[in-house]
């Protein structure tokens, strides 16, 4: 059943065979996670967004019309989930700053990525690429990640981001130029 088409698995799931959705998760979880890591810059944020995207996709599976690839539809859900989470996080960070100002105490961060040992585990090149990638505008970063990291076609990207094909090509071209420029600046500063 592993070679079963996405649409067949969706049909099975809608007919009550929930294990079919599990096969869709297995098929796309790594791809989605890796795309989200590059897009969001954090493995924890990517895990959260991917998990929430699969839950939302399961709940909304009946609304999938098959006009695009299942993965494109799933990625769009994940992207919207990540954007919503970032908005909530921004609101929460303002609250944390207000608490710190009111109490005079620094809130503790239980996130393992804030530990000094975490930074040593990440290679310098990956860090520089991620830093440069994060400095790109969101629309450029998204198009570049989908093309270069996820291997999507220009047409699939246009479908996901809901812009004309020429705009996708332009965004990817500009993102590559900006990324190259940012990396050269970062590499020069690392050497000094």
Mean pLDDT across every amino acid position: 81
Cα distance spanning the termini: 56 Å
- Beta fraction of the residues? under 5%
- Tally of helical segments: 9
The helix-and-strand class reads mainly alpha
Most strands sheet: none
How many whole angstroms does the radius of gyration measure?
19 Å
Q: Which regions contain 5 or more consecutive residues with pLDDT less than 50?
A: 117-122
Can you give a write-up of this model?
- With 192 residues, the protein is an all-alpha fold.
- It has two domains: 1-117, RNA polymerase sigma factor, region 2, helix turn helix motif (Rna Polymerase Sigma Factor, Chain: A, Orthogonal Bundle), CATH 1.10.1740; 122-192, Winged helix-like DNA-binding domain superfamily/Winged helix DNA-binding domain (Arc Repressor Mutant, subunit A).
- The chain is 76% helix and 0% strand.
- It has nine helices and no strands.
- The longest helix is centred in the middle third of the chain and has 34 residues, at 70-103.
- The radius of gyration is 19 Å and the shape is globular.
């Amino acid at each position: 059943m592993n070679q079963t088409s996405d649409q067949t698995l969706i049909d099975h799931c809608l007919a009550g065979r929930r294990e079919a959705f599990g096969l869709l998760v297995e098929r796309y979880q790594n791809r989605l996670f890796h795309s989200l890591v590059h897009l969001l810059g954090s493995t924890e944020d990517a895990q959260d967004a991917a998990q929430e995207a699969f839950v939302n996709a399961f709940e909304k599976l009946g609304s999938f019309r098959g006009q695009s690839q299942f993965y494109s539809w799933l990625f769009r859900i994940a992207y919207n989930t990540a954007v919503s989470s970032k908005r909530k996080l921004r609101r929460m960070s303002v609250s944390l700053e207000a608490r710190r100002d009111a109490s005079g105490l620094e809130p503790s961060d239980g996130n393992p990525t804030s530990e000094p040992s975490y930074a040593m585990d990440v290679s310098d090149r990956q860090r520089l690429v991620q830093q440069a990638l994060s400095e790109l505008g969101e629309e450029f970063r998204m198009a570049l990640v989908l093309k270069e990291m996820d291997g999507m076609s220009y047409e699939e990207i246009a479908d996901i981001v809901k812009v004309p094909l020429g705009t996708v090509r332009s965004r990817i071209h500009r993102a590559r130029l900006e990324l190259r420029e940012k990396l050269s600046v970062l590499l020069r500063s690392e050497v000094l």
